[in-house]
Every structure is written in C-alpha cells, then in structure tokens.
C-alpha cells in the first residue's frame, strides 16, 4: 500500500471519519499496515484523528509554500519582489539562469516545492524531496569585479546562518567557504554560479538548498552521518514561508551593507560564525592537498592558512576535510 | 551595380575573358563603373586580368579560411584540435558557449567567416564582415580559482600580440587589460566570458576578433580614428590561416607556461608590451573615476595605480581613458 492511496481515501471523505475496516477492505491491507501509514503521514505534516470505532479522519495538511503566505512577511525592497514559485522543476539554478540571460532583475527568486535534478557543488546530486525543504535560487547583479566573487560566497553563508537562527533556535556554524552545519552535520548547501564578461560580473545565481522538514527516512542511509534537517535538529517542524522571508530580508540587508561598506563587516561576521578557523585542516585544491590551520580571511575573501613552518598561504578554492586533532 | 553581379558574371565564365561591352550590356552599367568595381574586387583579394579588347578575366580569389590549409600549420597538442568552421554565425561566443555546456574539450575552437551579431565588451557591436577578419572563440577549462581569471585576460592579450607580430611586422602595444593597438588604434578585441561554480571556473570562452584584411570602407566613419586593420597598418593583406595557426600555437605555449609556472612570466611579458604603464590614466570603474599612473600588475593580475598622493590602488575592472599629458 502506498501512502497516496490512504491519503486519497481520507481526502475524498473531506474531514469525515473512515473506519479502519473500510480502509482495510478498499485498499486490501492489514490494520497494522494502515497504522504505519498513518504515522508516516503524520511525520510528513498531515494531521490525522484516530478514534476507536469511528476510524480515521484527516484534519490538517502539511504547510505548503504559497505566495499569499510569503509576500506579507517580505520586508525587502528588491529581493523576492519577483518570485517564480514552481511545483516541480529539474533545478531552480538552471531555471533562474535562463531568466537571468533574458534580463531578469536583481532579486528575482525561483523557488520550487521539489527539484528533480537538484545539484550541489561539483555537480553532485542534492536531495530535494517535495514539500520538505527550501530549494531556491536568487539573482544578484553585483557591481563588483569578478575577483571579488569569493566575498559573495561568504556573504551568502552569513546571511543564511543568521536568517535560520532567527527562526529556529539552533547554533549554526559555517564551514569554509559556505556549508552550514549543526552539530557538525550539514543542514544546507549554497552554490553560486557566476557569469562574467572579462572582469565584469554579468550576474550571480545563488542557489540555496535547506533541509527544513526532512525526516531521517528521506535521506540515503550513507548521508545520515553527514546531514541533518532543521526539524530533526530542533525537534519540531519549521514554517518554510517564514524561513524564506527571513532569508530574503537578511540577505538583502547584508548585501546592501556589502555594497556600501565593502567586505570588512561581512568578514567579521563570517569569522565569528566559522567552525573552520583554528582547526588543523586539509584543503584539497585541484593541484594539491594543503595542510594547515586556517587563521582568517584576507581582503579578497581568500582563506589564510598557517602552514607547519609558520608561513601563510591563501586559498581560494578547495574542498575541505577537517582532521581530528 | 553591386560587386556581386560583376563577380558572378566573371565566375560564370570560369577564367575566360568577358568583354567590357558584354558586361556593360548585361549589367546595364557604364565602363567607368565596371572599372571601379574591378578595383574594389582586387582590393578584396580577387585577382583580375584586364586586357584591352579581350576584357576581364578572374584569375584568383581571396584566400578563405579552410581547414585543409589551417590544420597542417597547427603545431599544437590541444588548442584547435577540435574546430568548428562556420560560414556565418550570429556570434562565435554564443556558439562555443553552447558547446562548452555540452561538455566540449579544452582547446575547442569556433571560427566563422562572418558574424552577424559579433559582440565586443559591454555588449557593444563588433564590426565583423565576411572573409576579412579572424572572428573566433577558444575554449579553456583552467584548473585555477575564479579570482585568478584576470590573469587569463592578460595572458590572452600577450598571446595574441606575440602571435600577430610573428606574422606581420608591426609593433603591437597592449592597452590594459587586453586591447591590442597599432599606432594607438585598435586592431583587435578580446572578450573572456567565464562561467563559475563557487570559486571553481567551469570554463572560459576566449573571444578574439582581429581586423585582418578590412579596408577603410569597411568601418563606420566614426571608428576610423580609433580602429585599424592589419592590412591597413602593414600595407599588405595577411594570410588568415597562418595567423590563426600562429595564435593557437602561441596561446597554447603561454597557457601551458602559466599552468606550470604561474602568473610571473605572463606578468613580465604583459608589462613589456604595455602602453598603459607610466602614463597618467583615468580608469572608470562602475563606482567612480580613478586618476593615476599605472605602475604595474599585482600578483592577482590587478592593475596597480599610483595616485596623486603617492598611494597605490589596485583596479580589477574599469574602462580606460588615456589622458594627454
């Protein structure tokens, strides 16, 4: 029995009780199987009344992203003023990239309940099931030269971690450059895709994937050691519309600060949230593995790493492996 | 009378003489008009015998880009090993970008006899008439982080200026970052379009437009003060296949040097060819106009500018206006 068939049955009765016997007969399953599916639906955010003799009744559905709910919460000037909300999309990044090439304005947002080809860094697959996460892409057209793009990568991490902390009481650490961690496990992925003409940035598409209300069973088993959702970490589901609004507000605030005052305030915030600084780390660049202790960010946004001989090296692009000390 | 009609007539006779009288009658034009058109065709590279009483005979056509001619000259390992040669294309950049997204290999080249929507920096129109220039785009997949892209911009300028100098005896100066000048006039445009994922460059499409055999009448009048072709500057037409081969060889050589030894040797070469260093210059960034004397390049590829108060500023992206001193 799939959950959809039980769900359809309950939805068809529009809030009326359906007896276990009737369900059992119509779906040709045992009473125990029904009970399991009811628990699964509840964990997905459905509210179901179970009353002996009367049976089961659907009293609530999981919250969905809706512009009606989102827009009133949006205290922004530009970010999210143009929103494309999709049920399913292969990738919000590709969708927004198309809009960017067609001339979409800064702040344009593409958000989807579900991605079928969500991408993480290096083309890795990103788990993005329906209705449980925030999968979205935000368009920036920063008037800064290409070499400063790393600063935007770091800015995005600061904006997201602060926005999440406003909604969910969790301590969030930033692993260089922009992974957000709770208790050492990843709760979000950020991917900036840039298009430039010489040293002029044409646009940056900031992809954000946040595991909001995923349950353990939504993850492939091998990911459970490394990934966690906000719901799993905080013990309660999180309103996704509130979270999206919070991210857009915080992101716009920091972005405007960055355009006005440059990288210095962003650097300070990033360093304060970092879990990378001060720990012996191996950084895998395309050319080599660098081992040292990251000490801070430089003016451009590179990571200053103290090597064994005391010298400093600056790294702009690498995969991070944290060594046990 | 258009030149094409005279040309078709001569081509139809396949090397036989056509009398001036016959041409005059068939095209309904004066003998003087025929003579003018013959001179025009000759300046475009056609060879025409004119013999009193016999008339005109086509004995040679302008050189066309052909892979048969190009490939034997190509002493490269990767650059130009995949070539897409097109008669007409809106823009070689857009064409190669598509191939890049589909996974084309480093060194892939798109080259066209004519571009109908050739683009320069900032989306400016680029004059690229049929058969007279080298309009091409080269694909790089450099394993360097995004902030180092300015180094590639500078590398491209050095490669082109050296490659051209090997074929045409002209002194070529580089105006920061990558305009090539002869006698203060622009002979070529280079446009790097980069696509990046976080700090990882996915690819760089290097667009090169070189005004090879253009004549004064190919330019809009307002451009003649600022632009010149190799033919106009050197006084003789240039073999385009040789030029393309020379560019690919020189570019690969310098690119491999860069991957092996880093930016230092490229910087030295760029500084030696520069016409920007040492002259009072105004640099227009998106934010402001900076006036000072460019003194050299920094480690990242930025331009170090000495300000009036003696302080140094580094500029990564700007339009350059050179002031008269």
Automatic annotation (TrEMBL), chains A, B:
InterPro entries in alphabetical order: aa-tRNA-synth_II/BPL/LPL (IPR045864), Bifunct_BirA (IPR030855), Biotin_CoA_COase_ligase (IPR004408), BPL_C (IPR003142), BPL_LPL_catalytic (IPR004143), HTH_11 (IPR013196), WH-like_DNA-bd_sf (IPR036388), WH_DNA-bd_sf (IPR036390)
Question: Recorded GO terms, molecular function?
Answer: ATP binding; biotin--[biotin carboxyl-carrier protein] ligase activity; DNA binding; transferase activity
For this protein, the DNA-binding region equals 20-39
Q: Give the matching Pfam families.
A: BPL_C, BPL_LplA_LipB, HTH_11
Q: What is its EC number?
A: 6.3.4.15
In this chain the BPL/LPL catalytic domain maps to 68-259
Q: Does the keyword DNA-binding apply?
A: yes
Per UniProt, which keywords does this protein have?
ATP-binding, Biotin, DNA-binding, Ligase, Nucleotide-binding, Repressor, Transcription, Transcription regulation
One annotated GO biological process: protein lipoylation
Keyword Ligase in annotation = yes
Main EC class of this protein?
A: ligase
Q: Which reaction(s) does its UniProt entry say it catalyses? A: biotin + L-lysyl-[protein] + ATP = N(6)-biotinyl-L-lysyl-[protein] + AMP + diphosphate + H(+)
Q: Which positions are annotated as binding biotin?
A: 115, 119-121, 186
Q: What does this protein do?
A: Acts both as a biotin--[acetyl-CoA-carboxylase] ligase and a repressor.
Member of which family? Belongs to the biotin--protein ligase family.
Q: What is the protein name stated in its UniProt record?
A: Bifunctional ligase/repressor BirA
| Protein species of origin | Cohnella endophytica
Gene that produces this protein: birA
């Amino acid at each position: 029995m799939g959950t959809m068939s039980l769900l359809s049955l309950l939805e068809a009765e529009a809030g009326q009780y359906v007896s276990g016997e009737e369900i059992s007969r119509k779906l040709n399953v045992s009473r125990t199987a029904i009970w399991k599916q009811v628990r699964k639906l509840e964990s997905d955010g459905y509210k179901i009344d179970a009353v002996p003799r009367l049976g089961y009744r659907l009293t609530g559905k999981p919250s969905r992203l809706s512009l009606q709910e989102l827009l009133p919460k949006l205290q922004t000037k530009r970010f999210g003023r143009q929103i494309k909300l999709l049920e399913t999309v292969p990738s919000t990044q590709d969708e927004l990239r198309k809009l960017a090439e067609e001339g979409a304005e800064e702040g344009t947002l593409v958000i989807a309940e579900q991605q079928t080809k969500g991408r993480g860094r290096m083309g890795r697959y990103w788990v993005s099931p329906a209705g449980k996460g925030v999968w979205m892409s935000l368009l920036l057209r920063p008037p800064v030269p290409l070499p400063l793009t790393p600063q935007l990568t770091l800015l995005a991490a600061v904006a997201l971690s602060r926005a999440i902390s406003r909604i969910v009481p969790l301590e969030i650490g930033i692993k260089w450059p922009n992974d957000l961690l709770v208790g050492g496990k990843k709760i979000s992925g950020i991917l900036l895709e840039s298009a430039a003409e010489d040293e002029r940035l044409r646009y940056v598409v900031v992809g954000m994937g946040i595991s909001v209300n995923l349950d353990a069973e939504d993850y492939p088993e091998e990911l459970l050691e490394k990934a966690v959702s906000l719901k799993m970490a905080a013990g309660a589901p999180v309103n996704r519309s509130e979270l999206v609004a919070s991210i857009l507000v915080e992101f716009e605030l920091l972005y405007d600060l960055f355009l006005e005052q440059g990288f210095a305030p962003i650097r300070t915030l990033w360093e304060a949230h970092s879990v990378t600084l001060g720990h012996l780390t191996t950084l895998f660049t395309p050319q080599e593995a660098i081992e040292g202790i990251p000490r801070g960010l430089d003016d451009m946004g590179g990571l200053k790493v103290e090597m064994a001989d005391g010298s400093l090296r600056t790294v702009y692009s690498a995969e991070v492996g944290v060594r046990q000390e």
